[in-house]
Hints:
Keywords: Signal. The protein is α/β, with parallel strands linked by helices.
Amino acid sequence: MRFLILMLLLFATCLPGVGKPVPDDKPAYRLFAAGGKATSYDKMLQQLAQADVVFFGEQHNDPIGHWLALHLTKDLLRLRQGQLVLGLEMFERDVQPLVDQYATGELAEKEFEEQSRPWPNYGTDYKPLVLLARQQKFRVVGTNVPRRYASQVAKGSLTALDALPAAEKAWLAPLPLTVDYELPGYQNMAKMFGSDASHAAGVQNIIQAQALKDATMAHFLNQARPAGHLLLHINGSYHSDNHDGILAYLRQQNPQLKALTISTVMQEQLGKLDKEHEQKADFVLVVPTDMTRTY
Length: 295
């Protein structure tokens, strides 16, 4: 009997594929720490939970990033024992009363979505986050400048805001706003228009509009964080890559805050972080370039 069992085992190991390691399934994403060292979600989570502010820099049409942001929100809420505030670039300051009313259950879903000017992909990409806040009763803060003012600046510079009524200026970062054109993110914007573009008035206006968004988000997320709370801010990665953009203005207002960042990037391969992404953030979420998009 023992001989028969040994013969069966020997025969089985000779079959194709038997006894060989099973290849990994195709991963949907990989995580890396700054510098390019691979890391895990749990290790990242433990570090993020110790921060004052976490910036999740996303690609707006990436479903993997949106899914991970939802799970990260749930886990940070648990680890911080409910002391969490969620900031969203996707809602503008003038609709904050509607965001508050919906989060507390005072405003119905239909009216909220009709009046709050949600992004076209709100239903698939951001609604789960807002519903979670409504269910778990933590605050959601829209941090972005109303887009009409950013458009005015892009067309006519920051001076276009001078004539605004005080009530409308309350939706913006405090004016006058000083723009540092030497910030790497703004330098990169200028390079997109050509080597001498940083001196062109039109390009400077576009950079000023970007700075208005960054400064406004920094101003209101700094206001929104009660002592002892963690503020998780969801924004396009360009607003927080290289600890730039929003963080540059946040450091001016509150340099003591411990801020950590995530940046989402697309790569053909997921085994190694491309050199160009190694210093973009404290953690880099890598998603395949052929991942399905939400729009």
